[in-house]
Write a structure and sequence with these properties.
With 218 residues, chain A is mainly beta. Chain A has one helix and 15 strands, in the order E-E-E-E-E-E-E-E-E-E-E-E-E-E-E-H. A seven-stranded antiparallel sheet of chain A has the order 2-5-14-7-8-9-10, with no helix packed on it. In chain A, strands 1-15-6-11-12-13 form a six-stranded antiparallel sheet. In chain A, a hairpin with a 5-residue loop joins strand 3 and strand 4. The C terminus of chain A is likely disordered. Helix content of chain B is 18%, strand content 22%. In chain B, strands 1, 2, 3, 4 and 5 form a five-stranded antiparallel sheet that branches. The longest helix of chain B has 13 residues. The mean pLDDT of chain B is 94. The chains are: A mainly beta (218), B alpha+beta (140). The interface between A and B is large, with 39 and 36 residues. Strand 13 of chain A pairs antiparallel with strand 6 of chain B, so a sheet runs across the interface.
Chain lengths: 218, 140
């Protein structure tokens, strides 16, 4: 397995991750899905990613996977309660020609982890698993994309497994972040961190990027 | 209480936080179900529209009684996947047959087949590619 995209969201507080010259820690760049609403993602004061104003978007890493089967991982950092509309989670098989992708996220409104797909503007709930988040705790979400199954893991536990494979193209990896009700601040909302995407091609760094960052943070 | 399978209606409504998109989910969600996975009919990749209005669900919620007798939600029996259809109680078999007939799903079986095989046939009738091994939700 090989890491093909990664970001530790390191930089000055308030730096927009799209445009403005920000470069991901692996040298890649971020763009917004052209068919999504306007996003406002920026760096936090603790090297993570939050929103700077109310908004919702899908952020796409510039790298392309070696095939259609890969994993996308993201830390979801639960700060103190903000808008009930807060959503953050990993996404894959993101196609830009239409609003099409798979994603997993935690919904504060429903107090659930969710596995979803967006196809042609239709947002389908493939499955959910109850679980409220605790302020101050970081949760590691992994979206595992295989042709036979799309799975959502949180902290290593498989929550949902779906046989859906309507979106067959490899697309790209990224994450969805929403604060539709109000902006996230450095102290509230669902911040994103430790983004890493790994495909099934041979080679790679050997040590997953995520764990390497965890060691540095410890 | 064990996980149980359901056939239920698909609900479609506008996303209140994103007017440009449509939300789709199984009707069980409107009855408070939070722990489930759903297998949908074929979907048009350009429009997102579904070919049918029935979805197969596996529900892990502890209380299945809240979903009994609800219009648009058909509860399948609590029966082992490896159990033969010959061992399933007649009222349960009749309920499965009635749900399939009501939804126009021509799934048949023999007495020697297992409930898991029948569920696989039902899932495949909803949409190709279904396999119970790739369809699961964390138990609660």
């Amino acid at each position: 397995m090989a890491v093909f995209a990664a970001d530790t969201f390191t930089g000055a507080d308030g730096t927009a991750i799209v445009g403005g010259g920000y470069t991901a820690s692996d040298g890649g760049t971020w763009s917004e899905h052209p068919n999504e609403l306007a996003g406002t993602a920026c760096l936090s004061d603790a090297n993570a990613c939050r929103t700077s104003a109310a908004g919702l978007s899908m952020y796409i890493h510039s790298a392309t996977p070696g095939g259609a089967e890969y994993d996308v991982e993201l830390d979801v950092i639960c700060k103190t309660a903000a808008s009930p509309a807060d959503v953050t989670g990993p996404a894959g098989r993101i196609l830009t020609a239409a609003r099409t992708y798979y994603f997993g996220n935690h919904s504060r409104a429903g107090a659930t982890w969710e596995l979803r797909k967006f196809v042609g503007g239709v947002n389908t709930l493939l499955g959910s698993s109850a679980g409220a988040l605790t302020a101050g705790v970081t949760y590691h979400a992994k979206l595992e994309i295989r042709n036979a199954a799309k799975k959502l893991f949180v902290d290593g536990v498989e929550l949902i497994s779906s046989a859906d494979n309507v979106i067959a193209g490899a697309g790209q990896a990224g994450f969805r972040q929403s604060s539709a009700g109000a902006a996230m601040t450095n102290s509230n909302g669902y911040h994103a961190d430790s983004f890493v995407a790994t495909d099934l091609t041979a080679g790679g760094a050997g040590t997953p990027y995520y764990y390497d960052r965890r060691r540095r943070a410890a | 209480m064990a996980k149980r399978y359901y056939l239920c209606d698909i609900v479609t409504r506008q996303d209140p936080s994103d007017p440009s998109s449509t939300l789709v989910y199984p009707k069980i969600v409107d009855f408070g179900v939070k722990n489930f996975v759903a297998h949908y009919p074929p979907q048009d990749v350009d429009t997102g529209l579904y070919a049918d209005s029935t979805v197969l669900c596996l529900v892990a919620d502890a209380n299945h009684q809240q979903l009994q007798g609800v219009e648009g939600i058909d509860q399948f029996p609590d029966f082992p996947l490896h159990g033969r259809m010959s061992a399933m109680a007649t009222p349960a078999v009749n309920a499965v047959q009635a749900a399939l007939q009501k939804r126009g799903m021509p799934v048949t079986w023999t007495q020697s087949q297992g409930w898991g095989e029948v569920l696989r046939a039902i899932g495949t009738a909803v949409a190709p590619g279904f396999h119970e091994a790739n369809f699961d939700v964390l138990d609660v």
